[in-house]
Amino acid sequence: MTIPKEVRETIKALNDAGFEAYAVGGCVRDFILGREPYDWDITTNAKPEEIGKLFKKSVYENEFGTVAINTESADPKLKIIEITTYRVEEKYTDKRHPDSVKFTKKLEDDLSRRDFTVNAMALEIQNSKFKIQNDNSKFKIVDPFGGQDDIKNKIIRTVGNPDERFNEDALRLMRAARFAVQLGFNIEEKTAEAIRKNSGDLVAISKERIRDEFSKIIMTERAKTGIEMLCDFDLLKHIMPELEEGWGVGQNKHHIYTIWEHNIRSLDWAATHGYKLENRVASLLHDVGKPRTKKGDGPDSTFYNHEVVGAKMAAKILERLKFPKKFIEKVVLLVRYHLFYYNVEEVTENSVRRLVRNVGPENMDDLLEVRIADRKGSGVPKAEPYKLRHLRAVIEKVSHDPISVKMLKINGDILMKELKIGPGHKIGYMLNILLDEVLDEPKKNTLEHLMARAGELNKRPTAELEKMYKIAQTKTREVAEEEFRSIKKKYYVS
């Protein structure tokens, strides 16, 4: 690892003006670990107004002594560097923000307010006053709280009293777990005890901040361990209590794991195979509806419609955590349709075509990823057996067939022109009725056939067309599922 030119030049400018300046926090931790820092922060005894005079392209719009300077670097991670004046913080009445901030002259005072020892170190570039060099031998680490030893021993430990640190900002309860899984560290015993003791304080934190920390945990390779930590520390019940409903709940003779174990094992596959965030969340939540739909016990228990219940639960969970609307819609879709059954000899192209219509061709790869995570979370040996590989080929084939109104060889303009009718609901009803027929028989997607059929439909009252349209919509949603349902019953799949 080398210290970036932009960081060295910024520190040199402060030193040349007579101020102390150090790289500080997570970037120092990552530098020691040989990891590329996400960003670089600098701390100094210069006051914000003094920093602003040194760096013309700077912004200071907060109460915490942090000035953002524009280095004009081509590297997005280095274009903006934050410089913060040494400070100490007063009480945290709301467990989120300090009641007040006071500037101090001592670096150690500033480091003492930080969360964990591995984040409470500063990097001094000793030659920065004289000449800009890229010589990493000429630096020293200021480490008053044993952060280097904790890095060596792979430990997450609070700076000072853990109760005080967590009472200052309750989000640190989750951050401890996040750093542990990101770095592959363990949480020191007293720190862990304090997390459990103060877990209820998480309710004081905004859902947006909780969402962001949760997402960071999910996006690590050790996401499964992260979820287990959140559960063990009594934090998960304040984030996603629905997941814990599966704890100790057995399944049927087709499953060797409890619902809880199955869900987090599915996440583990998704996390260790580079899935994107929405697919990881969908893998974690795909069976969240099972505990509420379980009927019976032992090897013959069932979970009928758990995908429907689970989709509704996933929507409420993600809405509560303030995830974006499009993200929620995507995860809900994947949870809702994850339980498709496919057997080469028994499932028709028609049902696959309707599945693609329901899910959308752009979401099929994601749906298959979630299905694979589901399989691996069940302990099966093969992630993608012949049946799923064959399904990919069928999906590719039917995706060229009309599965949306836009893919019909006819459109609203043609209907209005040829039938001499104006715009309105009737046009939409007819197009969707025609699509339903074409979904069953793609060969009917010709201008001649559709126009003749449209002429027949045009003779019917709008109210009757509306009823036919609603039936078509219901059929589009349910016909494939009905076929899958009958096969699942035959093979006892639930």
UniProtKB/TrEMBL annotation:
<dbReference type="InterPro" id="IPR050264">
    <property type="entry name" value="Bact_CCA-adding_enz_type3_sf"/>
</dbReference>
<feature type="domain" description="HD">
    <location>
        <begin position="259"/>
        <end position="373"/>
    </location>
</feature>
<dbReference type="Pfam" id="PF01966">
    <property type="entry name" value="HD"/>
</dbReference>
<dbReference type="InterPro" id="IPR006674">
    <property type="entry name" value="HD_domain"/>
</dbReference>
<dbReference type="InterPro" id="IPR043519">
    <property type="entry name" value="NT_sf"/>
</dbReference>
<dbReference type="GO" id="GO:0016779">
    <property type="term" value="F:nucleotidyltransferase activity"/>
</dbReference>
<dbReference type="Pfam" id="PF01743">
    <property type="entry name" value="PolyA_pol"/>
</dbReference>
<keyword id="KW-0479">Metal-binding</keyword>
<dbReference type="InterPro" id="IPR002646">
    <property type="entry name" value="PolA_pol_head_dom"/>
</dbReference>
<protein>
    <submittedName>
        <fullName>PolyA polymerase</fullName>
    </submittedName>
</protein>
<dbReference type="GO" id="GO:0000166">
    <property type="term" value="F:nucleotide binding"/>
</dbReference>
<dbReference type="GO" id="GO:0008033">
    <property type="term" value="P:tRNA processing"/>
</dbReference>
<dbReference type="Pfam" id="PF12627">
    <property type="entry name" value="PolyA_pol_RNAbd"/>
</dbReference>
<dbReference type="GO" id="GO:0000049">
    <property type="term" value="F:tRNA binding"/>
</dbReference>
<dbReference type="InterPro" id="IPR003607">
    <property type="entry name" value="HD/PDEase_dom"/>
</dbReference>
<dbReference type="GO" id="GO:0046872">
    <property type="term" value="F:metal ion binding"/>
</dbReference>
<keyword id="KW-0460">Magnesium</keyword>
<keyword id="KW-0694">RNA-binding</keyword>
<dbReference type="InterPro" id="IPR032828">
    <property type="entry name" value="PolyA_RNA-bd"/>
</dbReference>
<keyword id="KW-0819">tRNA processing</keyword>
<comment type="similarity">
    <text>Belongs to the tRNA nucleotidyltransferase/poly(A) polymerase family.</text>
</comment>
<keyword id="KW-0808">Transferase</keyword>
<keyword id="KW-0547">Nucleotide-binding</keyword>
<keyword id="KW-0548">Nucleotidyltransferase</keyword>
<dbReference type="InterPro" id="IPR006675">
    <property type="entry name" value="HDIG_dom"/>
</dbReference>
